[in-house]
Amino acid sequence: VQLVESGGGLAQPGGSLRLSCAASGFIFSSYSLAWFRQAPGKERELVARISWSGSNTYYADSVKGRFTISRDNAENTLYLQMNNMKPEDTALYYCAKDRDAYRIRGFDFSSWGQGTQVTVSS
Q: Is the confidence at residue 105, as pLDDT, over 90?
């Protein structure tokens, strides 16, 4: 399993970034995926999750209405569109894969990328 994030960088408050996660080594369309983030001195937190089919999504309250998770099963790529960004969105962002295929609850994200840094500052 390989997950490679890209698209991080510096954004101004109110600005946008789009993160990508290129996946390989597994049947991409069979697994739920997620974006997590970890800020310095804080615990890692779940930002958004998307089901294997793409039909179900979950967002943390802190990003609801601003971030959109999506996936392209033909391109084996996961995305996170981040709009109206805030300084508190500054963190290292990771994509992650569920351990088991076709799971609809009790997720266990056990495979991780190396992360991409997002900094929101004026």
A: no
